[in-house]
Design goal:
Rossmann fold, alpha/beta, single chain, 279 residues
């Protein structure tokens, strides 16, 4: 199994062996971008995983926060706020974004002659692979994406085949959970668990149901902050939710694992598969 730093090291070696070190001047449509700017922390992860360090001009101001999966790799790289005047002043040759800058930012930067890579939505493992592959193309990083996907698939294949028969509830500090038809739902299935929340999509924790019915496992995202929820009215602060956290088998998930619905979600899958087995 290859973790984050191992994958990056492997792909850097592959790129160094397979490409000339000479840079093609920016502006050549056939050249790799050399002044990449990322506008949000989800985009940061793709840029850090796929681009060479000297291709990255700037990352978001959240690139080193706890919920940034590649926060250690982001150290030492310039940060920029997703404000048009600040981004344009850097003269990037490629912008990568998920949500940063707002819905009109792509049109604005395109009008300035700057291409924008919009990271797509992922709802299952297939779309995780597809989005990574598509983002890699304008970065000229297809080989790196293939390595990441191969590692992702290898780790999925290594998971136990049998279901544990246990149910799992996804819980966030904001009191939100994820039901069927979502990437979190597929995460549970891959880990051998069934989703306690049977309603599709994302919504508030089912507090009324938790009064008389409990999941076998609580998958607590952003676990370190789950007891100090930012919203005073968040369902996660309700005594029923707190009791569920304390009384059930709670598996802490690092916020970075699930924050952006990307390939590194496999870390959460493995943690659930290891911690959700029947005693």
């Amino acid at each position: 199994m290859m973790k984050a730093s191992g994958i990056i090291c492997a792909t850097v070696l592959l790129t160094a062996c397979g490409q000339s070190t000479d840079k093609v001047p920016s502006g050549d449509p056939g050249s790799a971008p050399i002044r990449i700017v990322s506008l949000d922390y989800c985009a940061d992860q793709y840029v850090l995983a796929l681009a060479e360090r000297d291709q990255i001009l700037a990352l978001s101001t959240e690139s080193q926060d706890d919920y940034s999966y590649y926060k250690e790799e982001a150290v030492g790289i310039r940060q920029v706020r997703p404000r048009a005047e600040e981004v344009l002043a850097l003269k990037p040759d490629l912008i990568v974004r998920s949500f940063g800058g707002g819905p009109r930012s792509t049109r604005l930067y395109n009008s300035a002659g700057i291409p924008v890579v919009q990271i797509g939505w992922t709802s299952d493992f297939a779309s995780v692979r597809d989005v990574l592959t598509e983002v890699a193309k304008p970065l000229h990083a297809e080989a790196r994406a293939e390595i990441i996907i191969a590692d992702f698939d290898e780790r999925i294949a290594a998971l136990p085949d049998a279901s544990s028969g246990q149910s799992a509830l996804y819980m966030t500090p904001g009191g939100v959970t994820s039901g069927t038809g979502t990437l979190i739902d597929q995460m549970f299935t891959a880990a051998g668990l069934s989703n306690f929340e049977t309603q599709p999509g994302w919504h508030d924790l089912p507090l009324e149901r938790l009064v008389h019915d409990k999941p076998d496992v609580v998958a607590a995202a952003f676990y370190q902050s789950i007891h100090k929820t930012p919203g005073a009215w968040s369902p996660a602060r309700h005594p029923i939710a707190q009791n569920t956290l304390e009384s059930q088998n709670t598996i802490p998930l690092e916020g970075a694992w699930t924050a952006c619905g990307a390939w590194y979600l496999i870390d959460a899958v493995e943690a659930l598969a290891d911690g959700g087995v029947a005693p």
